[in-house]
Amino acid sequence: MATLQFGLKTQGTDFFGRPAEWGEYAIHIQCPWRIVRGDRIMVGSSDLYYPAGYENEKEEIPPGFDWDRDPNRRDELLRSLFDDGKRNFIVQAVEAGMAGAVRISMSDNLSLDIFPNDSLSHEHWRLLQPGNDERHFVVSARGIEAGSR
C-alpha cells in the first residue's frame, strides 16, 4: 500500500511513540498509480519490484532481492522527488475519472494518477483525515462508499 499525505502538517508521535509528521489528508492506494510530469513517468507503483539504483531493463535483478526488505527503486525515486520530505507540491486540481480513477494535479507540472485495474470488490484507494474519527471515502470496484475508520 502506498500512502501519500496532503495539506497542513501536524507533528506528534506515531503508534510506537516515535516523533512523526502527517498531513491534514492522506490517501492510501492499493492499486496501480504513478506520478507523472508532462508525458514522463517520474515514479510508479511497480517500481517497488526493482532494486534501488536499477536503471536498465537489461540488468538482471539480483537473486534474493526482496522488495519488502531491501532498498527498492520506488522508495528511492519518491525520496528523490520529494527531497527526503523537504519538498512539497501544491494540489491544484482533482479530476475524477471512470471506475474509480482519479488524477490529482499538483504544482511543478506533476500529477498523481490512480487507476484501479481489476473488477474485484476489494478496496482500491481511500481518502481520510488522519486523527479524525470521520468515515473514510473508499473506492472499490463496487463504487464509492463511506468506509470504516
Helix content: under 10%
List the strand order in the largest sheet.
1-2-8-9-10
Strand segment tally: 10
Please report the distance between the alpha carbons of the first and last residues: 16 Å
Low-confidence parts: none
The helix/strand order is EEEEHEEEEEE
Largest sheet: 5 strands, antiparallel
Question: How would you summarize what this structure contains?
Answer:
The protein is mainly beta and 149 residues long. Helices cover 6% and strands 44% of the residues. It contains 1 helix and 10 strands, in the order E-E-E-E-H-E-E-E-E-E-E.
Plain-language structure description:
By secondary structure, the chain is mainly beta. It has one domain. The chain has one helix and ten strands. The chain has one helix at 73-81, and strands at 2-13, 19-29, 33-37, 40-44, 91-96, 102-106, 110-114, 123-128, 136-140, 143-147. The strands form two sheets. Strands 1-2-8-9-10 form a five-stranded antiparallel beta sheet, with no helix packed on it. The chain has a five-stranded antiparallel beta sheet with strand order 4-3-7-6-5, with helices on one face. A hairpin with a 2-residue loop joins strand 3 and strand 4. The longest helix has 9 residues, at 73-81. The chain is globular, with a radius of gyration of 16 Å. The relative contact order is 0.19. The model has no long low-confidence stretch (mean pLDDT 92).
